[in-house]
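Researcher: Go.
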Amino acid sequence: METVTRVRLLILLGLNLLLFLCVGCASGPVYQDYASTIESPAPGRGRVYIYRPSALPLADVVGVVVHVNDAVLEHWPRPRTFVVLDQPEGEVRIRIYSGEVSFPLQSGETRYVKIRASHGLGATSLYLELVGPEQGRTEIEGLRLVGEETEPAAGSP
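Model: Structure:
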């Protein structure tokens, strides 16, 4: 094995170890603890959970800014975390750098949007996926809360 290849491998292993140690850095409550404190959305509003279940090496270094209806979320999901967002009923559009999902949101309804990682040739990309309620509830069970927002921050960078 070439020296350059060995150095790259050692650097990658070191980064993976560092990322592994940082995955547990999210300080919010685990969903199971948080779920019992959740109140229903206000009348005329629905709830959206945006979550990022992956804790894969290299996927964790990819940051993501989340836009909801062209406003920026103040708290964005890091690996193994979720964000709770109450929105007025109507069309909801969630966008990240690599794509978007749109869906209608009814008053009192709960929707789940998953941020998933895909690994390619030396690159990691993040994608949005609208998932059903059963899958969404199951997948966020062990994740930590990053933030709650009733409205994303106004404006978009």
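Model: The chain has three helices and nine strands.
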